[in-house]
């Protein structure tokens, strides 16, 4: 069986990670769950962690509905957990990283800030295939809202089969509408929107502070983007590129040389 690490940024107790891990088990994968001990949304690819005498605390836990599946609450950000898993913490090293299911869509170029996506991109940098999974839960002041996790998990076999045929290090981002699977449109490839479905704004500011607030995006999203297709009821799938050099800006031509001789 394929060895898979399931993580998230909403924390080990979040219902989304339990749903994703159960779906991975049902797909016949060899699952280990490891996620932040506390909410870590917005962590991006940070590898910060708590330290006790130079060591990162790890606590064995049980995930709801997954008796017998090894699971750990880690005092670290999700990308830190993935990094540890692929450089020696887990033996064997995971063949695949699943991150999510995030409570809220991860769309647009602002996926840069998502801990869910950051964990997947960290896997990709190390040559491990990864899938970030997010559910388009509407924002409500009290945190309520429908949670049709099955609209995401129902797509897992199809997406995993696709990912298995792609090169090592491939990172995909899956967003699912928060509605029953029968009410979702077909899975669509999507480009990243300039901004996400949820946007951050300064709510108040003074000389000694500011306050940020997350709000639903306004305006009409660009056709064909993940934000537009998701709003129309389509699950979306986008391939993301881990960090790499950008040769397109022509910096080597401006500075002279291509860096292969170690001299200028």
From TrEMBL:
It holds the Pfam family SurE. GO terms for molecular function: 5'-nucleotidase activity; metal ion binding. It catalyses: a ribonucleoside 5'-phosphate + H2O = a ribonucleoside + phosphate. It is an enzyme of class 3 (hydrolase). Its EC number is 3.1.3.5. Residues 4-186 form the Survival protein SurE-like phosphatase/nucleotidase domain. Residues 239-264 are annotated as: Disordered. Keywords: Hydrolase, Metal-binding. Belongs to the SurE nucleotidase family. This is 5'-nucleotidase. It comes from Pseudonocardia broussonetiae.
